[in-house]
Design a protein that fits this description.
Layout (H helix, E strand, L loop, with lengths): L5 E6 L7 E5 L5 E4 L2 E2 L6 E6 L3 E6 L8 E8 L3 E8 L8 E4 L9 E11 L4 E6 L2 E3 L2 E7 L2 E11 L8 E7 L8 E6 L4 E8 L5 E2 L4 E10 L5 E5 L8 E4 L2 E4 L8 E9 L2 E9 L1 E2 L13 H28 L4 E4 L6 H10 L9 E4 L1
Parallel strand pairs: 18-25
Antiparallel strand pairs: 1-6, 2-3, 2-7, 3-4, 5-6, 7-8, 9-10, 10-14, 11-12, 11-15, 13-14, 15-16, 17-19, 19-22, 20-23, 21-22, 23-24, 26-27
Length: 353
């Protein structure tokens, strides 16, 4: 890797003390029989024995890669070549294109690797989820410049979220470089007045806290009272409003406001100061709206039951009437039929009225 130290070893066989020369890829002599020949302090002689010659090259650069020659000048010239390849680890840089995004808007992030060798691979992650980016590359000499762009929509909750640009060399394992980029999402301020948890009586002290969030964060908060000025005993300290020794004159609606470049927001608190001896009934936990809703359902159910009962009763009001046909005496007809031996006399008829 660029910046690391490379060791180059020339193994000697049956060395007889002849001349040994080490040359760089540009065929410049580095060492002549163990003596420095090139004034480059990055090259150091590690060892020189009858079996091997070893040199070290510190802070190696891309320009240093290539074939290093070890030549032995005896009766016959012998040489070995060690090929050195230098890789450049990517170092990603992330920035926002244009202004910082506003909530419900789009943000465009650019991750740039100024130099890498071979070309780096760039991937985007947000909450450990892979994002789809568009990459391009430019070559300059032996190195490459890689650029990747990713675009997505942001919300208010994304303010402060981390987006990671990861760059690595696909051919080299365990050499990933990451840069974490915190998102900055602009949004109007939100204001909330935190009321006291107890009833206030004359003589008590009141402290109201105005909680404000926003991006940009509002520099100041503004306190006021609707249709009136703040009491003379009111003290302002940042987002705190304090009124000492309350009286019924202090009753009213107190407003906290905050503003940034995207808008202004306010929240209110209604102050009610009771007499020291006043008896205040505790508020029921069940609202009148809930009670009214239950009563309405109950009345509706009763109406439905009554309606069904009336309809069923009306269906049963029809009656049957037995009519004796033409005033004939039933017993006389039966007796006459018996005498005449006629068993098929006309039976009585039923009519539904």
């Amino acid at each position: 890797m660029e910046g690391e130290t490379a060791e180059i070893t020339c193994r000697l066989h049956s060395y007889d003390g002849s001349i040994v020369v080490i040359q760089n890829p540009y065929r410049q002599t580095l060492f002549f029989n163990g003596t420095r020949a090139l004034k480059d302090e990055r090259f150091q002689l590690v060892s020189f024995t009858h079996k091997q010659l070893r040199i070290a090259l510190s802070d190696i650069r891309v320009e240093d890669e290539g074939g290093y020659y070890c030549q032995l000048y005896s009766e016959d010239t012998h040489h070995q070549v060690a090929v050195v390849t230098v890789l450049v680890l990517p170092e990603p840089i992330v920035e926002v294109k244009g202004e910082e995004p506003v909530e419900n808007g789009e943000v465009e992030l650019i991750c740039t690797v100024p130099r890498s060798k071979p070309p780096a691979r760039i991937r985007w992650f947000r909450d450990k989820k892979l994002l789809q980016g568009m990459s391009s590359q430019q070559q300059s000499g032996k190195t490459f410049k890689i650029t990747s762009v990713v675009t997505f929509t942001v919300e208010k909750k994304d303010n402060g979220a981390i987006v990671t640009c990861e760059a690595d060399l696909p051919s080299v394992k365990g050499k990933k470089q990451r840069m974490e980029f915190p998102l900055s999402v602009r949004f109007p301020p939100t204001v909330k007045v935190q009321p006291p948890s107890v009833l206030l009586r004359e003589g008590d002290d009141l402290t109201l806290t105005c909680s404000v969030t926003g991006n940009p964060q509002p520099a100041d908060v503004m306190w006021s009272r609707l249709n009136d000025s703040l009491p003379s005993r009111a003290k302002l300290s940042g987002n705190l409003l304090t009124i000492t020794a309350l009286t019924t004159v202090d009753n009213g609606t107190y407003v906290c406001e905050a503003e940034n470049e995207l808008g202004r927001t306010a929240d209110e608190y209604v102050l009610v100061v009771y007499d020291p001896g006043a008896v205040v009934e505790p508020q029921t936990s069940v609202s009148y709206a809930v009670v009214g809703g239950v009563l309405a359902v109950f009345v509706f159910a009763i109406i439905c039951v009554l309606t069904v009962t009336v309809c069923f009763s009306m269906r049963q009001k029809g009656s049957y009437l037995t009519h004796e046909a033409s005033g004939l005496d039933e017993h006389g007809e039966a007796r006459e039929a018996f005498i005449n031996g006629n068993e098929s006399h006309e039976r009585k008829k039923e009519y539904f009225i």
